[in-house]
Amino acid sequence: MTQPLRVAVTGAAGNISYSLLFRLAAGDCYGSNQPVILQLLEIPPAMKALEGVVMELQDCAFPLLAGIETSDDPKVAFRGANQIFLVGSRPRSKGMERNELIAVNGPIFVGQGRAIQEHAAKDVFVVTVGNPCNTNAFIAMKNAPEVPRSRFTAMTRLDQNRAVAQLALKTGKPVSAVENLIIYGNHSSTMFPDFANAKVAGQSAVQAAGDAAWLQGPYLKTIQQRGAAIIEARGASSAASAAAAAIDHMRDAWFGTGERCVSMAVPSDGSYGIPDGTMFSLPVRCKGKGQWEIVKGASHDAFAKAKIAETLKELQDEAAVVKDLCN
Ligand code: NAD
Ligand code: LMR
Fold first, then answer.
1. Among 113, 139, 154, which residue terminates a domain?
2. CA–CA gap between residue 28 and residue 159 (Å, rounded)
3. Whole-structure pTM value
4. How far are the Cα atoms of 77, 155, 164, 258 from residue 86, in angstroms, in the given order?
5. What range does the domain containing 44 cover?
6. Per-residue pLDDT for 320 more than 80?
7. 158 close to ligand 1 (CB < 6 Angstrom)
8. How many Å apart are CA 144 and CA 325, to the nearest integer?
9. Do 309 and 181 lie in a common domain?
10. Nearest ligand, CA of residue 15?
C-alpha cells in the first residue's frame, strides 16, 4: 500500500475548500493510487462548520481518503504535511482591489510560515491561494528561512485558465489547442497574459485571433478584471474555478509538466529582469515532486515589457507595505 500523503488545507470550512477538499479526496490531484490524509485548519468560530464538512467528506466514502484531522492551530495542522494549500484568509468584496486585504490577511502568513518551518515535512511544497496571494506567499517564505524558498509558490493558474478559455472562445478552437499562454507578475489587476508568445493550434495567437487591438485592449482587461466580474455577478468571489486551478497547480508540480510551460508565482532568480526573490508569476516547467525551473528565453516587445514593469512595480510596493512582517 502506498504511504498516504499528508495534505494540509487552511480555510477548510470556506467556499474554495468546499470544492477543493472533495477533489483532493477523490484523487484528482495526486492520482488514483495515492491515498491522502487531509489536515484541515480553521479559526475557532469556523470549527463547527468544519465538523459539517468533515461529515460530508466521510459520507462520500472516498477510497483514497486515509484520514481527516482538524485543528485551529497551524502547528498541529501542518505537522508532517507534505503538501500545503494556504487558502484561509478573507476574500475581497465588490469594489476592492486584492491588495486592500494585506492589512487583514498578511499577518496570517507570518505564523503560518513559522509553523511550516517548524512542523511540516522536509519535502513540503506550498501553494498560496489567499489574497493578495503573491505577497502572502512572500510573507510565508520570509518567515520560514530554513525551508528552501523554491517550496513556496502562489497561484496564478486561475488567470492562465481564464486567458486560455477566452482565447479559445475568440478563435473558435478548443482550449486544448491553446499553448504557452503564460501570466506574468502579480495575481491582481496588473497581471499580464503574454499572448504574443502563445499559440493556438500551432499558429501564433496574434494571427489566430486576427486582432492585435482586441488582445491588447478588451482581452487583457477581461483577464485582469475577471475576478471582479465574478464578484459582481455572483456576489462572492470565484470558488469552484479557484479550487480547480489549485488542483492544476499542485498536480503539475507533483507529476511534472514535461515540455509544457505553466504559470506559477515563484521566487524569481533574476530572469526577465525580475529581482531575485520577488514572488512573480513566470513561465515554469515542473519536474515532479515539487521541483521546478523558470523557463527562460521568451522575448517581449515594448508593450509586454511595459506591462511586466507595471506589475513588478505593484509587487514591490506591496513588499514595502509588508516589510515589518518579513523579518
Ligand atoms: P471564504 O471566506 O469562503 O473562506 C475563507 C476561510 O478561511 C473561512 O472559513 C475562514 O474562517 C478561514 N480563515 C480565515 N482566517 C484563517 C486563518 N488565520 N487560518 C485558517 N483559516 C482561516 O473565502 P474563499 O472564497 O474560500 O477565499 C479564500 C481566499 O482565496 C480569499 O483571500 C480569496 O480572495 C482568495 N482567492 C484567491 C484566488 C487566486 O486565484 N489566487 C482565487 C479565488 C479566491
Ligand atoms: C479571483 O481572481 O477570482 C480571486 O482572486 C478572487 C478575487 O478577489 O477576485
1. 154
2. 20
3. 0.98
4. 11, 10, 25, 26
5. 5-154
6. yes
7. yes
8. 12
9. yes
10. 1
